[in-house]
Amino acid sequence: MNKTRAVYPGSFDPITNGHIDIIKRAGFLFGNLTVAVIDNPSKKCYFSKKERMFMIRKSIGEAGIKGVTVDSFRGLLVDYLRKTGQNIVIRGLRAVSDFDYEFQMALMNRKLYGKIETVFLMTDAKFAYLSSSLVREVARLGGDVRCLVPKVVAKKIKKLK
Ligand code: ADP
After folding, report:
1. pTM for the whole thing?
2. Which of 122, 131, 145 has the alpha carbon at shortest distance from 10?
3. pLDDT digits (tens, 9 = 90+) for 89-146
């Protein structure tokens, strides 16, 4: 079994079916995957770190995904990687619009930590339009998000105002 370690960092505010798809596929490539929730006070998130981590853990369980760890970090991703002795980062790519930002981040991270390798997984076409912010918006306006997010998220997000 491939035991290479990799980190999938993100806000996951909240986790969507698009994230779950990336987690599944990254898990096949890297036998030791950590989903790392970014916990930076400067980045305003709708759900607390605790809520986001809870929803990830629960959805991973619901999806029957095994061997994935959920963690969180504050500050720079490169510092988290150094601290945990890792250098592989997973990111998902949807449209060209993701590319600019992701490319910039990957190069900046490489500048800060030369050992880093960012691996991009292309979205499954059926999730190409799916983002956490859009899910929050649809929920806020009373739309049904059950086909976009894991069960635990759909339940929690119903109460969004
Ligand atoms: P961040 O604030 O770090 O961008 P997100 O939770 O929005 O955190 O996204 C984390 C990663 O997951 C990013 O690389 C993003 O491009 C990717 N991602 C988000 N939604 C999808 C999706 N529907 N399909 C594939 N990748 C996705």
Report:
1. 0.96
2. 131
3. 999 999 888 999 999 999 999 999 999 999 999 999 999 999 999 999 999 999 999 9
Distance CA 108, CA 74 (A): 17
Ligand 1 pocket, 86 CB below 6 A? no
Q: How far apart are CA 157 and CA 104, in angstroms?
A: 32
Would residue 126 show up in a list of annotated catalytic residues for this protein? no
Helix (H/G/I), strand (E/B), else coil: 104: helix
CA of 136 to the centre of ligand 1 (A): 14
Give yes or no: 43 in active site: yes
- Ligand 1 contact via 92 beta carbon (within 6 Å): yes
Q: Where are the domains of the chain?
A: 5-160
Give 63-94 pLDDT, tens digit per residue: 999 999 999 999 999 999 999 999 999 999 99
CATH topology of domain 5-160: Rossmann fold (3.40.50)
Which residue, chain included where needed, has tokens 């105002």? 161
156 is catalytic: no
Q: Which residues lie below 8 Å from residue 9, measured CB to CB, with a gap of 6+? A: 36, 37, 38, 73, 77, 80, 89, 91
Give Rg (Cα) of the chain: 15
The per-residue pLDDT for 96 is 81
Q: Put the strands of the sheet holding 88-93 in their side by side order.
A: 68-73, 32-38, 5-10, 88-93, 117-122
